[in-house]
Structures are given as structure tokens and as C-alpha cells.
Amino acid sequence: MNAEALKQRTQQFNLRVIKLVTSLPDGLVGQVLGRQLLKAGTSLGANYREALRATSRADFLAKIKIAEREIDETIYWLELLEAANIIPSRRLAALYAEARELSAIFTSIAKTTRARSDKS
């Protein structure tokens, strides 16, 4: 997958997170969990875009590692929404799948970047 395709994919994921958060029930729990999910879920795309503008390999890797942590946090909030019976698992299945795929992609990018840095 090239950088532009991944940029578009992270943006689409971000939009799906936004849509999910806007559908959460009103009240304190929905607001708090929604805010956390929104912050982590939309941070992924922003950090990837920052990585693409990195000034060094180390800077790129640092931004990719942040994106990797943010997608993991996003998965955590999705799991919590499901475990608390706020959103049914069938409604989260596709978003979970995409989050896990993105997590694998960012983990792979980090490993490859680190390996290339070690060779230099």
C-alpha cells in the first residue's frame, strides 16, 4: 500500500469513528467514552500525516509509533463500548476489523523503518 492510499484509508477510518461517536447515547458515559474514542481514533490519521512530513527517519519512526499507540487505544475504547453494552458487537465488527488491520500496518511500518535504521 502506498502512502497516499494509507492516508486515504486512515481518513476513512477517522470518519467512521466520528460517525460512531455521534451515534453514542447522551449522558455522561457516552460523552466521556465518546470523547476518548474520538481523540484516539482521529489522532491516527493526523499522526500519519505528520509522519509523512518527517524531517528524518527517527522523526518518521517516532510519529509512526504514536499512530501505532493511538490505534491500540482506539481498539481499547471500542472494546469498552462493547463490554459495557453501549454498542452491540455486530455494529462494531467492521470497525474492529479495520482497526486491527491498521494496527498491523503501522506495526509493520515501524518494524521496517527500525530495521532500515539499524542497517544505516
What does this protein structure show overall?
This protein has 120 residues and is an all-alpha fold. The protein has one domain (3-119): 23S rRNA-intervening sequence (de novo design (two linked rop proteins), Up-down Bundle), CATH 1.20.1440.60. 86% of the residues lie in helices and 0% in strands. It contains four helices and no strands. Helix 1 runs antiparallel to helix 2 (28-52), helix 1 runs antiparallel to helix 4 and helix 3 (57-83) runs antiparallel to helix 4. The longest helix has 31 residues, at 89-119. It is elongated, with a radius of gyration of 15 Å. The model has no long low-confidence stretch (mean pLDDT 94).
Summarize the structure.
With 120 residues, the protein is mainly alpha-helical. The chain has a single domain (3-119), classed as de novo design (two linked rop proteins), CATH 1.20.1440.60. It has helices at residues 3-22, 28-52, 57-83, 89-119.
List the helices and strands and how they pair.
Layout: H1 3-22, H2 28-52, H3 57-83, H4 89-119
Full CATH superfamily name: 23S rRNA-intervening sequence
Query: What is the fold-level CATH name, i.e. the topology?
Result: de novo design (two linked rop proteins)
Along the chain, the helix and strand elements come as HHHH
What share of the residues does DSSP label as strand, in percent? under 5%
From the N-terminal CA to the C-terminal CA, the straight-line distance is 24 Å
Search tags:
120 residues, mainly alpha, de novo design (two linked rop proteins)
